[in-house]
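Justification of resources, computational component.

The compute hours requested in this renewal are based largely on the per-chain cost of generating structure records like the one below. Each record pairs the submitted sequence with a full structure-token output. That output is archived, and it is also reused by downstream analysis tasks.
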Amino acid sequence: MKKHQFLIALCTATWIYVQPSIAQISPLKKANPANKAFNKPSNSKAMPADSEVRIGKLANGLTYYIRKNSEPKNRAELYLANKIGSLMENDDQLGLAHFTEHMAFNGTKDFPKNEIINYLQKAGVRFGADLNAYTGFNQTVYQLPIPTDSAEVFKTGFKILANWAGKINMNGEDIDNERGVIVEEDRQRGKNAAQRMSKELFPFLLGNSQYAKRIPIGTVEILNNFTHDKIRNFYHDWYRPNLQSVIAVGDFDVNEVEKLIKENFSGFSNPKNERPRLNYSIPDNIAPLVKIVTDVEQPYNVAQVIYKHKEGPVLTDQDYKSRLIQSLVNSMLGTRLSEITQKGTAPFLFAQSSYAPYQGGLVWGLSALTTVAVAKSANELEKALTAALSENERMAKFGFTDSEIETAKKKMEAGIEKQHKEQSKTKSANYVQRYLDNFLTGAAIPSDNYTYELAKNILKNITAQEINQAAKNMVSKTNQIVVVQAPEKEKANLPTEQQLLSVLKNAGNNVTPYVDDKVNQPLIAQNPKGGNIVNEATNKQLNVTTLSLNNGIKVVLKPTDFKNDQIIFTSFGRGGTSLAKDDNFLSADNASLIAQSGVGPFNPTQLSKYLAGSTAGVRSYIDTEYQGFSGSTSPKDLETAFQLIYAYATEPRKDAEIFNKNISDFKVILANKNSNPTSVFADTVQAVMGNYHKRAMPTTLADIDQISLDKAYAFYKDRFADLSGQTFVFVGNFDIEKIKPLITKYLGSLPNLNRNEDFVDLGIYPPKGKVSKTVRKGIEDKATVQLIFHNDYEYNAANNVQLDALKAALEIKILERLREKESGVYSPNVSLSIDKLPKAHYYFTISFNCAKANVDKLINAALEEVNAFKQNGATNEDLIKFKSEELRQEELNLRENGYWLSYLTTRLKNNDDINQVLSNKERINNVTVESSKTAAQKYLNGDNYIRLVLVPEK
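The structure output for this chain reads:
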């Protein structure tokens, strides 16, 4: 249990608390708008549209975008975009824009009931992971990734889009059955401190505007009671061609696709008496607005200051320049706050400032500089916020230094160059998002070459004065909002509204210019002596070469052409924290804090500045059984990546200030986390699954006091003192002969003591037999259930594919039973985890959220489905879906560097045959109804079954 992981979770949570919880599965990625520093001059040049995309409009007003793109091969991304969302609802239709989206999967004219999902799953399209939809304030978007090497399936994809566009059945029985599902979606996403505080903040953050009255999930009262005509009217009024767009990007013939669009969508017409599609905004505020909210389950003291700005989409070269300046400012301001956070005197746990679309882009036409400070206590919140806002004021008063600007520009240039080199490998989904933005907001869609040349020219000619003026304009004196979210128990100790306004007014008093902290030293103090290759073996079937070095290190190389500018790598050596003595375990388990302290003479911020302009990134790790390195780089920065590996191995940094700050912060986080029911439940799950082994228990405050910097540093040094057992795996765009000299120079110089180490089996396994634990925590009607089937087993490829098939088929049936039939859950999950080492063990987990009253009923329903598998096996239809999805996904995986890195590393760790992948198809096709029945009887027999439930206290 690492402190750093908790802090990341904390920082994420602070953002979730202040942003509206809307009914969408994946957020719309809006183009970053221009910032206020650049008001568009009248002669600002409009960005030309990319000639590679065909844009057209049917006679009925439907817009279409078509582009041929072969990444990935034999695939296309088909989207139906509707320029309508919850803002279009009447008062008696709250939540029905989102409800309509659900009904699109519950039966259409040409695809009754769940036939769309069934058809696509048999074609290899995964529901949720591939096939999906989301609803926001202004838009409802359906996404369908689909194969193009089957003409019948590809053509049917357009038929499905057309059915969503104008042929949804809206059957009364289906509507009623879906009510419970959407109520459960609200329960799964909410019924917690975040939702309760958000409900208080919505009217405040959204200015009592139409946005505040039209949260996409709607109200439970209306969802449960609306009459069928209300949703049918919404569909009739708003799902119309002149508010719709079809976007198709993929490996296909453009002319054929245009023909398919015309065939499928030309027959739709607009209503005779169209309702106007109105645009809404949020009112300005001259004086600062302040809101303080508390909740008994809120664990942390969080303050935010938001400076709102009205901004439009990127339309011109000047707008694009503004976007680049925004990114530069975010980078430099973020670096300053990171420097403070690392210091022992830092007055906050975490602080962040960034300029971005307001509330994640949910409200069109607004951006904001948002500053967040997380304090150690309510008493320190005023001080924490003052420190964070002081950096905004320092930026506004004095700007950024030339060295800061140069560093930020180098980082941006490196990213721009990398993106340009990958242009021919751009995924179709990336293009879709651009065209979606164009349809919804009017954002420009220039070609990649155009933006590349424009960006280079801007960075070459931009001045410090322009950047600093833009930064100053971000810290506006109007449209300011102050939000505090805190634990209820801390309410009496929080600053008052007047005190918060005083902080906002006076934070800039006595600030002085920033002094850049850079280290002018080499990354490696001494040039490595190098080693040599003693053996080389080639696997021609997989195009994999294995090198053995004289210091015992093995290097596995798989050159690919999947990406033009990517090399990724990882390494492992046996040992890890399993070798730590019990009295040293807590320090050893936090030795990762050493790697987070920088390397050699560089602290993390200094290292980031040193690496400006380089794409190389490396980290070292120590987990329970292994230690090693991982990272990524462009081919041009490959040597820097090797230098970083060498530095992390031989020159770890012992920084007492950073280490102690992390430990101090961890104590605060640990002291507060038990107010959150999910955190309490997670601790119980961790303890039970580790059978209360002392090394598997959640960390306590008493444990933190035992963590020693000296011991953690010594353990880190020891784990990397002998790397003779390390295996490195490199995948990406490199030439084997050209990479060899770097391997021998840097990896060949890594220390070796030939200790021939192995990890120790600590015996941390779940308890045998039947176990049931119920945690009572929380104030709202929300239960969480985990049902775990586990046992030792014979680990091999044949058994593993049977487990995979069983998992996939069971997930289909659990979804059908708990969601579609019982209407008791939103998105139940069936997960499978397998380990070979130290001992082969599998874990099946069925998990879901539901109402407290339904816990036993839904658990029994889930177990009935499990028993049906043991009696009958999976259905042939579900196995067809499994095989199709698995084989289609493998087609994509085999063209991904990440897949090969993970695959080779896993096979090598487990001493498996790396050629296993060559026979995957045969093993998948060998799964039968009978073999799934046998697997269910073996792996789901219930002999080792753990029932874990979280329910509210009352």
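The radius of gyration is 29 Å. The longest strand covers residues 301-310.
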